[in-house]
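Sorry to interrupt, but I need a hand with the structure work. Please put the record directly below this note.
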Amino acid sequence: MGKKLELIHTKDKFCIKIDGKEIPFITEYTITVKAGSSIVELGLKLAVPNKDKEIIIETEKAKVL
């Protein structure tokens, strides 16, 4: 079963949720859909405060810029 992506970007509200869980600290996003493909690529840029925040990344394909 796939994950549900919810994007709200209006003049009054901005949030991105995946399976009902809001993703915090987003500063930018890109959505790419290739012609003839059923895949949607979502790119996120985050600005996470360095104080009192724990960041956990669990992936086989980590890429930190």
About this structure: The first strand starts at residue 5 and ends at 9.
